[in-house]
Amino acid sequence: MTATERLILRRPAKEDFERFFEINHDPQTNIHNPGGPMSFEKAESTFAKMFDHWKTHNFGSWVIVEKDNPENIIGFGGLSYKLYGEEEKLNLGYRLASQAWGKGYATEFTKKAIDLAFTEGNKEIFAIVRPSNIASVKVLEKAGMIQIGTLNDVPGQPESLVYRIQK
Protein backbone atom coordinates (compact mmCIF):
# COMPACT_ATOMS: atom_id res chain seq x y z
CA MET A 1 0.00 0.00 0.00
CA THR A 2 1.11 3.53 -0.72
CA ALA A 3 -0.52 6.92 -0.46
CA THR A 4 -0.62 10.41 -1.90
CA GLU A 5 -1.99 13.51 -0.25
CA ARG A 6 -5.61 12.44 -0.89
CA LEU A 7 -5.44 8.87 -2.19
CA ILE A 8 -4.59 5.39 -1.00
CA LEU A 9 -3.21 2.94 -3.57
CA ARG A 10 -3.45 -0.70 -2.58
CA ARG A 11 -2.96 -4.07 -4.17
CA PRO A 12 -6.23 -5.47 -5.58
CA ALA A 13 -8.15 -8.22 -3.83
CA LYS A 14 -10.70 -10.66 -5.29
CA GLU A 15 -13.56 -8.75 -3.64
CA ASP A 16 -12.64 -5.65 -5.70
CA PHE A 17 -13.82 -7.29 -8.93
CA GLU A 18 -17.42 -6.05 -8.71
CA ARG A 19 -16.29 -2.42 -8.55
CA PHE A 20 -13.66 -3.06 -11.26
CA PHE A 21 -16.44 -4.31 -13.54
CA GLU A 22 -18.76 -1.38 -12.67
CA ILE A 23 -16.11 1.20 -13.57
CA ASN A 24 -14.93 -0.56 -16.74
CA HIS A 25 -18.46 -1.38 -17.93
CA ASP A 26 -19.68 2.22 -17.55
CA PRO A 27 -20.15 3.84 -20.99
CA GLN A 28 -19.03 7.21 -19.53
CA THR A 29 -15.61 5.88 -18.47
CA ASN A 30 -15.19 4.36 -21.94
CA ILE A 31 -16.15 7.43 -23.94
CA HIS A 32 -12.69 7.47 -25.60
CA ASN A 33 -12.26 3.69 -25.73
CA PRO A 34 -12.87 2.36 -29.25
CA GLY A 35 -13.75 -1.03 -27.74
CA GLY A 36 -16.52 0.52 -25.68
CA PRO A 37 -17.61 -0.68 -22.25
CA MET A 38 -15.93 -3.86 -21.03
CA SER A 39 -17.98 -7.05 -21.14
CA PHE A 40 -18.17 -9.19 -18.01
CA GLU A 41 -15.94 -11.82 -19.62
CA LYS A 42 -13.32 -9.23 -20.66
CA ALA A 43 -13.41 -7.71 -17.17
CA GLU A 44 -12.82 -11.16 -15.65
CA SER A 45 -9.83 -11.86 -17.88
CA THR A 46 -8.37 -8.36 -17.41
CA PHE A 47 -8.77 -8.60 -13.63
CA ALA A 48 -7.07 -12.02 -13.67
CA LYS A 49 -4.19 -10.54 -15.70
CA MET A 50 -3.82 -7.82 -13.06
CA PHE A 51 -3.37 -10.51 -10.40
CA ASP A 52 -0.92 -12.45 -12.58
CA HIS A 53 1.16 -9.32 -13.17
CA TRP A 54 1.38 -8.74 -9.42
CA LYS A 55 2.44 -12.36 -8.84
CA THR A 56 5.09 -12.25 -11.56
CA HIS A 57 6.52 -8.75 -11.03
CA ASN A 58 5.45 -7.75 -7.48
CA PHE A 59 3.84 -4.58 -8.85
CA GLY A 60 0.93 -3.72 -11.11
CA SER A 61 -2.38 -1.90 -11.06
CA TRP A 62 -3.62 -0.65 -7.72
CA VAL A 63 -7.07 -0.09 -6.33
CA ILE A 64 -7.44 3.68 -5.92
CA VAL A 65 -9.49 5.01 -2.99
CA GLU A 66 -9.93 8.38 -1.33
CA LYS A 67 -8.21 8.71 2.06
CA ASP A 68 -11.34 10.37 3.41
CA ASN A 69 -13.55 7.51 2.21
CA PRO A 70 -11.41 4.34 1.93
CA GLU A 71 -14.44 2.09 1.34
CA ASN A 72 -15.20 3.91 -1.92
CA ILE A 73 -13.09 2.63 -4.80
CA ILE A 74 -12.74 5.48 -7.30
CA GLY A 75 -10.60 3.67 -9.83
CA PHE A 76 -7.82 1.31 -10.81
CA GLY A 77 -4.44 2.12 -12.24
CA GLY A 78 -0.76 1.52 -12.12
CA LEU A 79 2.25 0.27 -13.96
CA SER A 80 2.47 -2.92 -15.97
CA TYR A 81 4.34 -4.34 -18.89
CA LYS A 82 2.45 -3.87 -22.15
CA LEU A 83 3.21 -4.54 -25.78
CA TYR A 84 3.66 -1.45 -27.92
CA GLY A 85 3.48 -3.16 -31.28
CA GLU A 86 6.23 -5.79 -30.94
CA GLU A 87 8.09 -4.15 -28.05
CA GLU A 88 7.26 -4.59 -24.36
CA LYS A 89 7.37 -1.37 -22.33
CA LEU A 90 6.55 -0.26 -18.80
CA ASN A 91 3.11 1.28 -19.26
CA LEU A 92 1.24 3.67 -17.01
CA GLY A 93 -2.53 3.36 -17.18
CA TYR A 94 -5.59 4.20 -15.15
CA ARG A 95 -9.36 4.34 -15.27
CA LEU A 96 -11.29 6.41 -12.77
CA ALA A 97 -15.01 6.36 -12.11
CA SER A 98 -16.65 9.38 -13.73
CA GLN A 99 -17.69 10.65 -10.25
CA ALA A 100 -13.95 11.12 -9.50
CA TRP A 101 -13.23 13.19 -12.62
CA GLY A 102 -12.26 16.85 -12.42
CA LYS A 103 -10.78 16.65 -8.91
CA GLY A 104 -7.11 16.31 -9.85
CA TYR A 105 -6.98 12.67 -8.74
CA ALA A 106 -5.65 11.39 -12.07
CA THR A 107 -2.72 13.82 -12.00
CA GLU A 108 -2.01 13.10 -8.33
CA PHE A 109 -2.08 9.35 -9.02
CA THR A 110 0.06 9.63 -12.17
CA LYS A 111 2.78 11.67 -10.47
CA LYS A 112 2.94 9.16 -7.60
CA ALA A 113 3.11 6.16 -9.94
CA ILE A 114 5.97 7.78 -11.88
CA ASP A 115 7.81 8.63 -8.68
CA LEU A 116 7.48 5.06 -7.40
CA ALA A 117 8.68 3.61 -10.70
CA PHE A 118 11.77 5.81 -10.70
CA THR A 119 12.44 5.01 -7.02
CA GLU A 120 12.42 1.31 -7.97
CA GLY A 121 15.12 1.90 -10.58
CA ASN A 122 13.07 2.20 -13.77
CA LYS A 123 14.57 4.58 -16.31
CA GLU A 124 11.51 5.29 -18.48
CA ILE A 125 7.75 4.95 -18.41
CA PHE A 126 5.32 5.05 -21.31
CA ALA A 127 1.61 5.75 -21.68
CA ILE A 128 -0.84 5.43 -24.55
CA VAL A 129 -3.80 7.78 -24.89
CA ARG A 130 -6.47 8.25 -27.52
CA PRO A 131 -6.05 11.61 -29.29
CA SER A 132 -9.64 12.59 -28.43
CA ASN A 133 -9.02 12.14 -24.69
CA ILE A 134 -7.88 15.70 -24.02
CA ALA A 135 -8.28 15.36 -20.23
CA SER A 136 -5.87 12.40 -20.07
CA VAL A 137 -3.44 14.13 -22.44
CA LYS A 138 -3.36 17.06 -19.99
CA VAL A 139 -2.84 14.67 -17.05
CA LEU A 140 0.16 13.04 -18.72
CA GLU A 141 1.66 16.41 -19.63
CA LYS A 142 1.13 17.82 -16.12
CA ALA A 143 2.99 14.77 -14.81
CA GLY A 144 5.96 15.61 -17.04
CA MET A 145 5.35 13.10 -19.82
CA ILE A 146 6.12 14.13 -23.41
CA GLN A 147 4.51 12.86 -26.59
CA ILE A 148 7.15 10.96 -28.56
CA GLY A 149 5.07 9.44 -31.34
CA THR A 150 1.96 7.52 -32.27
CA LEU A 151 0.94 3.87 -32.31
CA ASN A 152 -1.48 2.20 -34.69
CA ASP A 153 -3.00 -0.02 -32.00
CA VAL A 154 -6.68 0.07 -32.96
CA PRO A 155 -7.40 -0.90 -36.60
CA GLY A 156 -9.62 1.60 -38.38
CA GLN A 157 -9.16 4.27 -35.70
CA PRO A 158 -6.84 7.27 -35.42
CA GLU A 159 -3.45 6.30 -34.04
CA SER A 160 -2.98 6.52 -30.26
CA LEU A 161 -0.55 9.07 -28.88
CA VAL A 162 2.53 7.61 -27.17
CA TYR A 163 3.94 9.48 -24.18
CA ARG A 164 7.17 8.89 -22.30
CA ILE A 165 9.02 10.18 -19.28
CA GLN A 166 12.64 9.41 -18.54
CA LYS A 167 14.44 9.60 -15.23
Structure description:
It is globular, with a radius of gyration of 15 Å. The two termini are 23 Å apart. The longest helix is centred in the N-terminal third of the chain and has 18 residues. The mean pLDDT is 96. The strands form two sheets. The chain has a five-stranded antiparallel β-sheet with strand order 1-2-3-4-5. The protein has a three-stranded antiparallel β-sheet with strand order 6-8-7, with helices on one face. It has a single domain, classed as 3-Layer(aba) Sandwich (Aminopeptidase), CATH 3.40.630. The relative contact order is 0.15. The chain contains four helices and eight strands, in the order ββααβββαβαββ. Helix 1 packs across helix 2. Helix content is 31%, strand content 34%. The protein has 167 residues and is of the alpha+beta class.
Task: Lay out the secondary structure.
Layout: E1 2-3, E2 7-10, H1 17-25, H2 40-57, E3 61-66, E4 69-84, E5 87-96, H3 105-119, E6 124-129, H4 134-142, E7 146-151, E8 160-166
Looking at this protein, list some descriptive labels.
single chain, 167 residues, alpha+beta, Aminopeptidase, five-stranded antiparallel beta sheet, three-stranded antiparallel beta sheet, 4 helices
Share in β-strands:
25-35%
Widest sheet: strand ordering: 1-2-3-4-5
Average of per-residue pLDDT values: 96
Helix content: 25-40%
Question: End-to-end span in angstroms?
Answer: 23 Å
Q: Write the element-wise H/E pattern from the N-terminal end onward.
A: EEHHEEEHEHEE
The CATH superfamily label reads Gcn5-related N-acetyltransferase (GNAT)
The class by helix and strand makeup works out as alpha+beta
Low-confidence stretches: none
Shape descriptor reads globular
- The appropriate CATH architecture is 3-Layer(aba) Sandwich
Number of structurally distinct domains = 1
Main sheet, how many strands, which sense, barrel? 5 strands, antiparallel
- How many DSSP-defined strands? 8
Rounded to an integer in angstroms, the radius of gyration calculated over CA atoms is: 15 Å
